[in-house]
């Protein structure tokens, strides 16, 4: 079978140990980022299966109808709105997905929190320029960490905060907050207090139609001038333009961002703001995570074409 893997930015998939799982197939890997539907259709025309990395590639019904050879989409991680599932059903294209522990994203979240509070990147760059200390950092112990959504990743970040001696509290739906309470974490008394009284807010909400734009500019405006907001989940959770406006107005005073509405985000206005630490969606981009994710995706392909499909959506 002909397997096509688009958007392998780092040209790393072929170097993964699990890549040998595809040795009986013809495989084409693209290392650039392509968003043009017509070009994607051209590239995918001979694909029996596609391996998609998270939401990097959008597949609409119009595109899918032009791919009559396509039998399977094997998704890295969970399927989201980038694939028209209803169209896949109508066109008899199977879709398989995988799952991960979220540890890589939780660890990056904590790295961004530490780097932001101690200005590590700015200070390291100053030293390379022949300069010495230029800022006053802030410790974590004794400060309040707000976790919005106590799910798979939020729970891990909450435990990191506890280990660092922070006062951790949670906001979110009742199922999320009930679980947090059972694990001994405080629940914020209100949404307003959650933003106003948290020194650091970290978002770990799953993006869907209900949660898109759930964080408003008014929420951010309640945060203090020394507060930090961290988003390693999805950019669309914050209403468009709200984060940039809030940071320009000085509340919150700093942001750490790993996700963007348009990716790659080399032209994001956040990159030019001095009070933002930006990373290029590194949350899940880690070797062990990739080995696990891609191994599942490749297994799903082999099982499907062997007549024993697994992990179908």
Description:
Keywords: NAD, Oxidoreductase. Belongs to the D-isomer specific 2-hydroxyacid dehydrogenase family. This is D-3-phosphoglycerate dehydrogenase. Residues 111-283 form the D-isomer specific 2-hydroxyacid dehydrogenase NAD-binding domain. One of its GO terms (molecular function) is NAD binding. The chain is of the alpha/beta class. The chain has 2 domains: 2-101 and 287-306, 3-Layer(aba) Sandwich (Rossmann fold); 103-278, NAD(P)-binding Rossmann-like Domain (Rossmann fold, 3-Layer(aba) Sandwich), CATH 3.40.50. 33% of the residues lie in helices and 15% in strands. The protein has helices at 37-44, 61-65, 85-90, 103-117, 120-128, 152-163, 174-182, 191-197, 217-221, 242-248, 287-305; strands at residues 2-5, 26-29, 49-53, 72-76, 94-96, 144-148, 167-171, 186-187, 200-203, 228-231, 254-257, 276-278. The protein has a 7-stranded parallel β-sheet, with helices on both faces. It has a 5-stranded parallel β-sheet with strand order 2-1-3-4-5. α6 links the parallel β6 (144-148) and β7. α4 (103-117) packs across α6 (152-163). It starts with a strand and ends in an 8-residue tail after the last helix.
């Amino acid at each position: 079978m002909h397997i096509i893997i688009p958007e392998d930015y780092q040209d790393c998939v072929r170097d993964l140990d699990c890549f040998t799982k595809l040795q009986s197939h013809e495989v084409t890997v693209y290392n650039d980022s392509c968003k043009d539907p017509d070009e994607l259709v051209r590239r995918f025309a001979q694909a029996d299966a596609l391996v998609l990395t998270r939401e990097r590639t959008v597949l609409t019904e119009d595109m899918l109808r032009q791919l009559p050879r396509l039998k399977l989409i094997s998704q890295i991680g969970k399927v989201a709105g980038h694939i028209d599932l209803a169209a896949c059903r109508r066109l008899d294209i199977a879709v398989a997905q995988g799952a991960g522990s979220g540890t890589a994203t939780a660890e990056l979240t904590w790295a961004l929190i530490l780097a932001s509070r101690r200005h590590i990147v700015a200070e390291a760059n100053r030293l390379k320029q022949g300069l010495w200390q230029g800022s006053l950092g802030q410790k974590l112990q004794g400060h309040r960490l707000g976790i919005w959504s106590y799910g798979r990743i939020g729970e891990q970040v909450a435990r990191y905060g506890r280990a660092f001696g922070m006062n951790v509290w949670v906001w979110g739906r009742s199922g999320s907050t009930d679980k947090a309470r059972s694990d001994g974490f405080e629940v914020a008394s209100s949404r307003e207090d959650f933003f106003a009284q948290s020194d650091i807010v970290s978002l770990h909400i799953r993006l869907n139609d209900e949660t898109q734009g759930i964080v408003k500019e008014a929420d951010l405006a309640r945060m203090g001038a020394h507060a930090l907001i961290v988003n390693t989940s999805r950019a669309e959770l914050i209403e468009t333009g709200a984060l940039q406006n809030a940071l320009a107005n000085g509340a919150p005073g700093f942001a750490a961002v790993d996700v963007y509405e348009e990716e790659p985000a080399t032209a994001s206005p956040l990159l030019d703001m001095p009070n933002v630490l930006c990373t290029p969606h590194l949350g899940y981009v880690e070797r062990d995570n990739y080995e696990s994710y891609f191994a599942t995706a490749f297994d799903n392909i082999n099982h499907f074409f062997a007549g024993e499909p697994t992990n179908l959506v």
